[in-house]
Write a structure and sequence with these properties.
18 strands; 7 helices; globular; about 325 residues
Length: about 325
């Protein structure tokens, strides 16, 4: 491996996304989602993306033991194989879970997955759904807008009445109609999204997003009575369906070993000997892409059995 590679990935939420903060709240919901501590805007941590990509890639490759943290559940289970011929361990690293007295072979992975930040948030208006963003987020993702909004108005990519646009509880005058320039015109879904964008100042964004999160209430059912179990009512929040996020992935070529290019899955623990893969893995980024694409079926985060979590990889660019 000879050089560092940088890719920016774009995701569309096919379902509401609940990546929990791991804390219980005394506010409007019991189970809040992860937020950026500075802006209070929801995000998906890079650790969640990395765990998802590794778990799914190991499933596709046929070596589930190479997923997770590599702990051994039994004396016979070794966890991560740590073999140089294993594309999962090569890409994401290896921490071999060993029995007492055995040596532990470990090394870091060669990919770095960063947090996925919210780019476009769907908000209901009297004109139909609108996807709200900010100049800073567009710039960070590689997009551009000809004119930024003020602190008390918006710029949009479609025609609105003279009174302005109602973003939930907030009525903003429209400064100007503009065209948002995409970093990659081949992004899936961009053709319909580009005509429904509203750009607001960053100082308003956190409040607008928080006010338009999906909040659901669940309750456990007592199997004996068929009624709600006492004290089992709880609420949780999620990013709305069709939210757009972006995340950076960096390939760190620190290892001197060559990536074990594979065209077949593993069989009986032996690498590259099983059924052909849908697409050959020619490098670590291919392994990550395959794992992330499977999230379109298996999802990410919590509440997956309640219809949450599916995300679609809409495309990527090389910044």
């Amino acid at each position: 491996m000879s050089r560092t590679e940088w890719r920016r990935l774009f995701f569309i939420a096919l379902d509401p996304l609940h990546v929990g903060s791991g804390e219980r709240s005394l506010g409007r919901v019991d189970l809040p989602i992860v937020r950026d501590p500075a802006t209070q805007v929801p995000k998906v941590p890079g650790t969640s993306l990395a765990g998802l990509a590794r778990s799914n890639a190991a499933l596709l490759y046929g070596k589930p033991g190479c997923a997770g943290q590599g702990r051994a559940d039994t004396m016979d289970e070794r966890g991560h194989c740590g073999q140089p011929s294993c594309p999962i361990c090569y890409t994401f690293g290896s921490l071999r879970a060993s029995r007492q007295g055995d040596e532990t072979a470990s090394y870091a992975g060669v990919v770095r997955l960063h947090d996925a930040h919210l780019l476009f948030c769907p908000v209901p208006t009297s004109l139909g759904p609108v996807w709200v963003t900010t100049p800073d987020r567009l710039s960070d993702a590689g997009f551009s807008v000809p004119e930024a909004p003020g602190k008390e108005d918006a710029v949009v990519t479609f025609d609105v009445p003279a009174a302005g646009i109602d973003l939930g509880w907030l009525l903003l005058p429209v400064k100007k109609r503009v065209a948002v320039q995409s970093v990659n015109s081949s992004l899936q879904g961009w053709d319909w999204l580009r005509e429904r964008i509203a750009v607001v100042d960053e100082s308003l964004y956190g409040s607008i997003v928080s006010a338009n999160l999906e909040v659901r209430t669940s309750v456990a059912i007592d199997p004996l009575t068929g009624a709600a179990a006492h004290g089992a009512l709880f609420t949780y929040e999620a990013l709305a369906r069709l939210s757009w996020l972006f995340a950076d992935i960096i390939l760190d070529p620190y290892r001197t070993a060559t990536f074990p290019k594979v065209e077949k899955a593993a069989s009986n623990g032996k690498d590259n000997t099983g059924e052909p893969l849908t697409e050959p893995w020619n490098g670590p980024l291919d392994v990550v892409r395959s794992g992330l694409r499977l999230a379109e079926l298996l999802g990410i985060g919590g509440m997956g059995t309640r219809g949450f979590g599916r995300i679609k990889l809409a495309g990527e660019v090389a910044p």
